[in-house]
Amino acid sequence: MDAELIAPPPAAPAVDDGEAPLPHEEFEARLRGKSTRYHIHHPFHVMMAEGRLTPAQLRGWVANRFYYQVSIPLKDAAILANCPEREIRREWIQRILDHDGRGADDPGGIEAWIRLGEAVGLTREDVTSLRLVAPAARFAVDAYVNFARRQPWEEAVASSLTELFAPHIHQQRIDTWPQVYPWVDPAGLQYFRNRLTQARRDVDHGLRFTLEHFSRSRALQERALEVLQFKLDVLWALADAIMLDQCEIEIRGAKA
Ligand SMILES: O=C(O)c1cc(C(=O)O)c2c(n1)C(=O)C(=O)c1cc(C(=O)O)[nH]c1-2
Q1: Ligand 1 pocket by C-beta < 6 Å: which residues?
Q2: I need a surface site. Which of 7, 55, 131, 139 has the fewest CB within 10 A?
Q3: Are the CB atoms for 100 and 108 separated by under 8 Å?
Q4: Based on the number of CB atoms within 10 Å of its own CB, is 155 exposed (0-12), middle (13-18) or buried (19 or more)?
Q5: ipTM of the modeled complex
Q6: How far is the CA of 150 from the centre of ligand 1 (A)?
Q7: Could you tell me the CA-to-CA distances from 86 to 83, 184, 199, 201, 213 in Å, in that order?
Q8: Partners of 37 in beta bridges
């Protein structure tokens, strides 16, 4: 099954409708203005930051989110496969290495997420087997990978720009978890620390490209905003899926 249905409609051709493109500063402000729809505002993430998740719920989030972690390199490989520009590929390939790792000295983000799993009390096998991943979480993440496979690579680049807002949520976890979840081994937070610099570097590149490429017409700029909204919806749907999964587990537990 794939999750194509929640992807936005195919791109409209970049017609010159007479409206001038927004200046870069204004276009960037519109993209950044999408932060109000970021999953940091989702009730599950609000509860997480306030320390209101039970250990089982926090473990459920880590286990489900692992499916996003292992899918990001597939999404980035789809962008590489569709992109004929060597300069872009040279930069973009770093993202795959960040997650997959470069060898023993740099085991990469997927390994760091497994260690986060261990820090919250899961086993490596609990995480890597994907047996705790809810069906709707898979659907949300697959929609993102399928989008990158099927849509123009330039749109897939723009869809990664939710990372504009990610350093804030990573920093929030680094700041709050030691107080509100003192039972979590702090070594497990290394994933979030690594992402602070990696996400900023990714965003520099992705934003520069998006501002240039999509400013060729006002219609293209609107399309970039639509694509960013699609990705925000993927993250929101993923949080919905995880929250509902935790409710279902509790209901089953109460019945048992
Ligand atoms: O923990 C988060 O809330 C969060 C959000 C996002 C995001 O905004 O897409 C990413 C990440 N983390 C992340 O760790 C990561 O590596 C990442 C890559 C991408 C992407 O779209 O290419 N998003 C994100």
Answers
A1: 72, 160, 162-163, 166, 169, 195, 235
A2: 131
A3: yes
A4: buried
A5: 0.99
A6: 20
A7: 8, 43, 22, 18, 16
A8: none
Q: Which of 125, 126, 143 is nearest to 231 (CA)?
A: 143
* Per-residue CA distances from 198 to 6, 37, 58 (Å): 28, 22, 24
Helix residue ranges, H only, 151-213: 153-159, 166-180, 190-213
Confidence at residue 8, expressed as pLDDT on a 0 to 100 scale: 54
Tens digits of per-residue pLDDT, 205-250?
Answer: 999 999 999 999 999 999 999 999 999 999 999 999 999 999 999 8
DSSP string, 24-89: HHHHHHHHHGGGGGSGGGSHHHHHHHTT-S-HHHHHHHHHHHHHHHHHHHHHHHHHHHH---HHHH
Which atom of ligand 1 sits closest to the CA of residue 192? 14
| Both structure tokens of 50 | 């306030």
CA distance 121 to 57: 12
pTM across the whole model:
0.93
| 144 neighbors 186 (Cβ within 8 angstroms) | no
CA gap 61, 121 in Å, rounded:
12
Distance 225 CA to ligand 1 centre (A): 18
221 is written with which tokens? 């700029």
- C-alpha of residue 195 to centroid of ligand 1, in Å: 9
Digit-coded pLDDT (tens) for 187-210: 999 999 999 999 999 999 999 999
